[in-house]
Amino acid sequence: MELTEKERKDLLDLALSTIKAELEGKELPGVKEATPILREKRGAFVTLKKRGQLRGCIGYIQPIKPLHETIERMALAAAFEDPRFPALRKEELKDLSVEISVLTPLKEIRDVGEIRVGVHGLYLVRGPRSGLLLPQVAVEYGWDTETFLRETCHKAGLPPEAWRDEGTRIYVFSAEIFGDLS
């Protein structure tokens, strides 16, 4: 089920106002009006970019919380808990853009021919290791299917060809992606 333009705007506003409130030591704003879709449990990621460069990206793969709570929590996590970056500073806000990816449920595949670059994101699991790349990543880098698989293995800390192993589980998902990223 697709979000309305107002719901998209409300979620983007929620993500940014939550980050601002945290930086200013104020009470988190919460969502003003949670429509039925915003109350649905959905997996989602919040991506932050500073002047077009990745500044943080964290999300829930599984539908753990209502969407509006997921966005609030993941906005904070992307800004302050992404281990690849230092915590966001107040002076960075003016250069920050936000993108939200609301995920469909994961679907395990047996044939990599089912993967559609630009439509699917990948979640790969082998033993205790896992890696996920959102659908837009392959498009941004111009990857074909095999490169997308190898890069997802890399994200999981696995050898590049681990996707070929029988013990590796590959999942696809789609995402409704929106935001103000350039």
What class do helices, strands and sheet pairing give? alpha+beta
The name of the CATH superfamily of the largest domain reads: Hypothetical protein ph0010, domain 1
Helix-strand string: HHEEHEEEEHHEE
CATH fold annotation of the largest domain:
Glycoprotein, Type 4 Pilin
The percent range for strand residues is 25-35%
Low-confidence stretches: none
Write up this protein:
The chain has 182 residues and is α+β, with helices and mostly antiparallel strands. It has two domains: 5-103, Hypothetical protein ph0010, domain 1 (Glycoprotein, Type 4 Pilin, 2-Layer Sandwich); 107-174, 2-Layer Sandwich (Dna Ligase, domain 1). Helix content is 31%, strand content 26%. It contains five helices and eight strands, in the order H-H-E-E-H-E-E-E-E-H-H-E-E. It has helices at 5-24, 36-39, 67-80, 135-141, 145-155, and strands at 44-50, 53-60, 96-103, 107-109, 121-126, 129-133, 169-173, 175-179. The chain has a four-stranded antiparallel β-sheet, with helices on one face. Strands 4-7-5-6 form a four-stranded antiparallel β-sheet. Helix 1 (5-24) packs across helix 3.
